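hey can u run this one w/ fe (ii) ion bound, need the structure tokens asap thx
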Amino acid sequence: MATQTLATASTASPLTAADPHRFPDLPAFPTDIQTAPLHRPTYRNFVALRKSLKGEQLLNEANQFFDLGPKLYDLRREELQKYDYKNRGSYIEYKGFGNAVVDEHGNLDWNEFYNMTFSTFHPTPFSHPQVIYDHDELIKSYIKHSHALVTTILSHLNTHLHLPPNTLQKLHRLTSPSGDQIRVIKSPPQPVSDRRTALGKHTDFGSITLLFNRLGGLQILPPPSLTLEDHKPQWTYVKPIPSHCIVNHGDSMVKFTRGVLRSNIHRVVSPPGEQACHTRYSVFYFSRANDEVILKGLGRGDVILRAKDGEEESINSKD
Ligand SMILES: O=C(O)CCC(=O)C(=O)O
Ligand SMILES: [Fe+2]
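ok here u go:
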């Protein structure tokens, strides 16, 4: 993963007080905590992104998911458990609070989440809470706008990897079945005496993740190449920035590029400083290659061909 931020706001300086997308009613990220350096697009790319992508709509819709989160989780865990995906043989819908182990000591996670896909509104034997149906237009529109941003990112990567035109984009068509999904995570404040990992260390599955969050807590483990000689990589916070999303490369991009692109290790801990007393929501778009795509080195394009060949297992995107 390269951790990048992409500005989608209309102003050159999205951090000004006039920015309508600054985080309402939340304490600021502490100024004395070191954060990971992030790459931002050049001003030219920033303007191009805004023009081509309806960036304002994407931001507005992401904000609406931050309003949907509390409405969904106000249904309470007992009710949401009816939609638990572990009983459904899929990753769509609800993951209950504390259902996953986060570390080698067997500690459990400190979050619950709900996954939504395009197929959320297709006829299936499984229903959703009414609040999801009430937001069907938002969910469909957010998938469309997020996918447009992912396509723009893939097209930049395609160019810089010297791949034949549209190679990456063709593996990620919105019109073909894939595991693309929206996720809304809720992590309530942790007890003062027991603040710990809320989501265990991992790399993202899939190709590109777009992540909006407002409170700190996300940490990355920098790769050795970005760590001082004779030092161990240290968990480092990623600071949420208004009107920006964080872009992760997932494991499929590592496969497609034979390791030219990396998927970085990250985790979520209790938010720092005063932020720890607030409920943390995050809003995601996980993009994955179309179901039938075999996850292996693309093998065309001199940048990838120069990468070392490794053993490749054959697995398709759906699995
Ligand atoms: O909540 C966050 O900031 C990150 C969560 C995450 O990494 C994930 O769900 O894959
Ligand atoms: Fe992640």
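The mean pLDDT is 85. anyway lmk if its weird
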